[in-house]
């Protein structure tokens, strides 16, 4: 079952008198439960593509369907609501709220969705256990290491029950041990929970774990390899 369908997608930017094709006529689909990595050199279009799939940017041309919904046709307020209920994000800078505890950061999106306090609490405690940070539930981000903060960010992205998780360079600011621990957590969630992950990365550690790798160059797909 495909949860994402991308057809003839393009994103162009104007620089001086030039048109830069950041994403240039890309088409592919993503099945539920994939552990997909998008790779390529700087300027290849990785982050632009992630932003388009996540409804954070609007395409110049082409179509993006998420679970059958045409997000390329949505207005900004519709996209905001759609992201809240359907898409999880993990950024390289963690993006945790410093005034909230680890537990409160994980609960935040669920509360915005209107999920009951009891269910928020149960899901959060379950996720803290899965990511191995139950004992840090009441710690604020400033008291957590970078790797711990990123695991909290992953738990927050999953707590809301999204269709898939978009992770843009999630290991960029982590040391080797923290990066491996984070990837172990994400792989566990992929294998045991069926969570779909789409990464944008330069990190060979993520590439090594990928079930599928799409390689971009100059905004085009030059390779799409599935590992058995």
Account of the 3D structure:
The structure is a single chain. Helix 6 links the parallel strand 7 and strand 8. The longest helix is centred in the C-terminal third of the chain and has 18 residues. Helix 4 packs across helix 5. Helices cover 36% and strands 30% of the residues. The strands form two sheets. The chain has a six-stranded mixed sheet, with helices on both faces. The protein has a four-stranded antiparallel sheet with strand order 2-1-4-5, with helices on one face. With 228 residues, it is an alpha/beta fold.
What is shown here, in short?
36% of the residues lie in helices and 30% in strands. The chain has 228 residues and is an alpha/beta fold.
List the helices and strands and how they pair.
Blueprint: E1 2-15, E2 18-31, E3 35-39, H1 46-53, E4 61-66, E5 69-70, H2 76-86, E6 87-91, H3 102-113, H4 117-130, H5 146-159, E7 164-168, H6 176-193, E8 197-200, H7 204-209, E9 212-217, E10 220-226
Parallel strand pairs: 3-8, 3-9, 6-7, 7-8
Antiparallel strand pairs: 1-2, 1-4, 4-5, 9-10
Helix pairs in contact: 3-4, 3-5, 4-5, 5-6
